[in-house]
Design goal:
Layout (H helix, E strand, L loop, with lengths): L26 H9 L12 H18 L6 E6 L2 H11 L5 E5 L2 H12 L7 E4 L16 E5 L1 E2 L4 E2 L12 E5 L16 E4 L11 E6 L1 H11 L11 H9 L9 H17 L1 H21 L4 E3 L11 E6 L5 H10 L15 E5 L6 H17 L1
Helix pairs in contact: 1-7, 2-7, 3-4, 7-8, 8-10
Length: 372
Amino acid sequence: MSTNLAIPDHLLPHDGRFGSGPSKVRAAQVQAIVDANPNVLGTSHRQAPVRGLVGDVRRMLAELYRLPEGYEVVLSNGGSTFVWDAAAFGLISAKAQLAAFGEFGSKFAASVAAAPFLQEPTVHRAVPGSIALPALEDGVDTYAWPHNETSTGATAPVRRVPGAGDALIVIDGTSAAGAIEVDPAQADFYYFAPQKSFASDGGLWFALTSPAAVERIERIAASGRYIPPSLSLADAVTNSRAEQTLNTPAIATLIMMRAQLEWMLSQGGLAAMAHRSRASSAAIYAWAEARDFASPFVADPAHRSPVVATIDLVDDVDSNELQAVLRAHGIVDVFPYRKLGRNQLRIGVFPAVETADVEALLACIDWVVKNR
């Protein structure tokens, strides 16, 4: 394939950002950062302007998810990867069962398995492109799995394990949050980061946290188990209730996230955001199924992600060369997850992405393949 192809201008999308995180940032979010200087940017995170910002984000997330009585939004420094270690130290009592069907579920399982003070976890695995789910097991106090596996574009249901009693349900919602509808009552600790649907930068994590999870966190913190202060979930709960974080938070990220949440709520909330992403991903899957050079990587339509569409290409359509042509025209970040090693495209269609731009992207791919 020639990488010197010139896609006609009339085919190009208005905005060519289709990354799976970081994702497209709307212009209004950038303007919100500008507007926050000098009253918020460069000011103490222990004082009212920044604490008010944190409070706004927590309140808006609670509204977006219509949190059940007693649930609260907890946040802290770091990203979702910090949560894996924090959960091992401060959320799992003794034994966890995890489902791993991609890179990120597998990394959480590895963190838990490496903790010397926990029992060996049970891990249900599935090959990339499919999903694994937990099953009732005696002695398990925590069940954990991804809602949406960003590396493969596979989505799993979020529901309590029947018969699990007071075992906690811990869900990685990193690439699902803000774009896939979920009943928060089906989980105890639904955690995510801001750089996907919330169209912000990284550097923070958030969790929709049940009273049962808070009780577990406090009990483990009081048990004498060593917990590094930077990974203390008990401190995260305490600081969040005071609209703070342990250290200075990513203030610009919070500003961007507040602006995105304002937009989400003004557009109709989580249901409206889910509709936007479903429309975009449905266009991609229908397109792939109608082409002889492309096919959805996730075979089961019920498990295909509405936010991260993974599309396999035939051997004579080289993904790297196709990406190079697209990038030369301002269409970026449609590369597959590196460790999968597949000839594939991975297209992020979080709510900020316009379906019309997705359709333009697909037209560009058709043009490149036809004219290669």
